[in-house]
Amino acid sequence: MALPIFRTSLAAVICSSVALGFLALGRAGFAVNHMDIAPKYAGIVMGVSNTAGTLAGIIGVDLTGKLLEAAKFVHSDLSNPESWRSVFMIPGVLCIFSSLGFLLFSTGERIFH
Predict the structure, then answer these.
(1) Distance between CA atoms of 74 and 7, rounded to whole angstroms?
(2) What residues contact residue 57 under an 8 Å CB cut-off, 6+ apart?
(3) pTM flag (> 0.85)
(4) Residue range 8-30, pLDDT digits in tens
(5) Measured distance CA(89)–CA(83) in Å, rounded
(6) Does position 96 have pLDDT exceeding 80, yes or no?
(7) What are the distances in angstroms from CA 46 to CA 20, 70, 76, 105?
C-alpha cells in the first residue's frame, strides 16, 4: 500500500521485495495448518484452499486490467503513479484483512479426524 508514495523505481522495487519477503515468511505459518486440522485429509484441504487462492489470482489479473482501463480516463498516461494506486491498494487491503481473519479465527485443533 505504500508503493505509490515512492518516487524512484529502486525504492518501489525494494518495497515490493520486502513485502513479498514477509509474505513468504507468513506462508510457513499457515501452510502447515492443513496438517494440523486434518492430518488424514491434508492433501484435499490444501487442494481446496489452493484452488481458492488461484481463483483469486486469476480474477485479480482481469481486475487489474479493468482498473487500468478506468485509470486511462482519469490519467491519460499510465506511467503516472496515481494510475496504479488502486491496483496496489486493493491487494494490500485484502492481504491485511485476510491476515487478521487468519489470526482471529484460525485454530490448530483437529477438525477432521
Answers:
(1) 20
(2) none
(3) no
(4) 888 888 888 998 888 888 777 77
(5) 11
(6) yes
(7) 21, 36, 43, 18
